[in-house]
Amino acid sequence: MTGGSALLGGSAFAQAPAVLTNSQAGRRFRAYVKFTRERPTIVELRARALIERQVLLRVEAAQTCYTNVDQCLIAGYPMPPNGASVIGHGGVGIVEAIGPQVLHTRVGDRVVVNLHNACGKCFNCLRMRSDKCMSNQAGPAVPRYDMADGTPVFGGTGAMAELMICNEEQEVSIFSDVSSAELSMLPCVGGCGLGMAFTNVPVDLGSDVVVFGAGPVGLSALMGAKMKGASQLIMVEPIRYRRELAMKLGATATLDPNQYKERKLRPEPGIEVVIASDRHEDALVEKIRDMCKMKNTRVWAGGNRIGPDHVMEAVGGDRLKPKEVQGPDPTGVTVLQQCWELCSAIGTLATCSVGQPSGSLVEIPATQWADGAKHHWGGTGGGTNDRRDVPLFARLMETGQLNMKAVVGATYPLSQAREAYQACADRTVISTVVTPTA
Ligand SMILES: [Zn+2]
Ligand SMILES: [Zn+2]
Question: How far is the CA of 317 from the centre of ligand 1 (A)?
Fold first, then answer.
């Protein structure tokens, strides 16, 4: 490859020089690869030559996203027909080579590779919804690696490998000395939680905020809401050590949902119901409403708001039964329903989870849907624009305002990637990070 800075002439706007991309072709490295049928395993791959806006990096850290655990741990789990692909939802690494059209990145940069693109040019990006960037629809997926027998291997977000080829649209250069393990919490999980608190939900000073789920996503949402000045922060989480961690990170109270499981339809829904959304009598909803009850109960004097100002959901469906305590509804659907019911009449709820059973439904009273004023923000990545927001999150980590170090649980070498995913599925630690080249 050629050197970078000497050819740039000092211009910050000069395009990065082309590299001898074929020099990367054939580089051998180990990766954790999933197949159409067989159980994932660690195999040796060879990198293909970089094309267009591809970037090759040496991976330093990658978090084990819970949404991958079934692919990693269930034998015969049905996979898309693409064939083999490297596992993972983003990571952190050092750029070793760049494709001929790369503009932002320089060789030697440390970059965060996000799950989603943020191209800044597509229809959705131009309308401030980079979390729904469409650039990955621009063409069919292309293989980036080959196995020794010639089998092509895909995997644009897979960072469970010593080397990774990603698209420039996915990655952001980080100019900070924050550790790669901490930064690795940002793609997909931490960034998603922070995105809920920072981007679309107007968490305001003195507000009451409820977060469901104290995993890495929910804890990040909690810390974001605290930074934005929420006064009461209630975390709902069935696992004790996660509730305790939430208290260390800023929660003012925690609730174990298994202590408030009672939920039943009201006898005559819609007839004698004071709050239109209350078709159910729900012990958890009632408990939280009670905790958020305003001292000022005078409707004519700015009081009597019912329910918290903002609700954020980071639970989702259980893909495997955890070793730790399970919540009241493993499908995650009841939590979505409770979030809607809890949210105050003009409040905001943000949801970001996945994994609910296909065909499951959330029930919203028609009058609330048609004529209500609850604001719902769903969306991939919590609404973040990764190119804009990831450097901000790294800055908050650098200054100590955001304690992502507390959310990094155990680290594993690449050879133990499966164990890392097992611990993630078991929920025996708050998170697991694989460090392929440590
Ligand atoms: Zn993920
Ligand atoms: Zn885009």
Answer: 14
